[in-house]
Amino acid sequence: MQKEYKLYIWEADKAQSVIAEVEALFTERNIAFTPWEKDAHIGCQSTKLCLNDEAGKRRILSALLPLIHKHDCMLYLQEQENRRTTPIAFFACDLDGTLIQEELLVCLAEIKGIQETMQAQTQQAILGAKAFSESFAQRTALLKGISLSNMQEAVSQTHYARGAKALLQHIKNEGIKTALLSSNYQSMVQFFAEDLAFDYYLGSEAYFDDACKLSGELKRIIDTEDKAKALSSWLKAEGISPKNCLAIGDGTNDLEMLSPVGHSVLCSASAQKGEKNQAENFSFSWLSLLSKQTV
Question: Where are the strands (E) in 159-244, listed by range?
Fold first, then answer.
């Protein structure tokens, strides 16, 4: 049975180029879509389409993923139920390049002077050019010797996406449960989870030596399946349907948690930087959109 979705594309200098590539992608896959509509209030354009199943949705999200990094934009795929938007009762998001503007492993790599190598390997993992677990293990090996104090320093120098705190506060005020799911090290994920009072959080577990330095080995890697399983478990514990969950991510490691939920967002970190006014408008668009749809 087909499901109806609404796809939002946030305005940017290259908005028309993004739309043209999305249309080409849909046409190639024989996916029918409606004419684009512009919503000046929240600064985006939208179209409606139908997908056969969750696997079909995952394939589309995977195909759309490179576009957000190529054009520094945000895409929001929203499930429609009887032509109406399902309300949001649970908010889940990735950390690196999503909640914060930086990639934390790249920040740590700067301490060892290997940031270019780390940036290249991280980008490969984000776009699925290399198996995530294998890539994360290799990148952790490169960071052998990094101390807990180095991690604390890196965390202190990061920047939240503009409007992130206001968005989380709005969500909390609405009584919506929140979860932070990251493949990064648990000790760093915990800082952000506690700082913004997330209800749930998840991160990878690394081994440290007696001097509290990374050994270069991992006890547990949080991959795409782990994120999806954790989110599913938390939704069940709260008695919330996946249809009422909004999840945000920026890489292939997020696709499994994005596919089953009613509100799926692909967002690049660069889209959250930009010029100050543009970035603030971007954040305001989020608040305006969610205000219409939360309960």
Answer: 177-185, 200-208, 214-220
Q: What angle do CA 291, 292, 295 make, to 5 degrees?
A: 75
Percent of the chain whose predicted confidence (pLDDT) is above 90: 70
Question: Which of 184, 181, 252 shows the shortest CA–CA distance to 221?
Answer: 184
| CA distances to 43, 188, 224 from 259, in Å | 25, 26, 11
pLDDT digits (tens, 9 = 90+) for 271-283: 555 444 444 444 5
Determine the distance from the C-alpha atom of residue 146 to the mean position of all C-alpha atoms in its chain, rounded to a whole number.
26
Question: What b/e readout covers 192-211, taking b as 16+ CB neighbours within 10 angstroms?
Answer: bbeebebebbbbbebeeeee
CA trace torsion 7, 10, 12, 16 (10° rounding): 20
Q: Which helix (H) or strand (E) holds 235?
A: helix 224-238
Q: What is the pLDDT of residues 135-146, one digit of tens each?
A: 999 999 999 999
Q: Can you give the pTM of this predicted structure?
A: 0.91
Name the phi and psi angles at 129, rounded to 5.
-75, -15
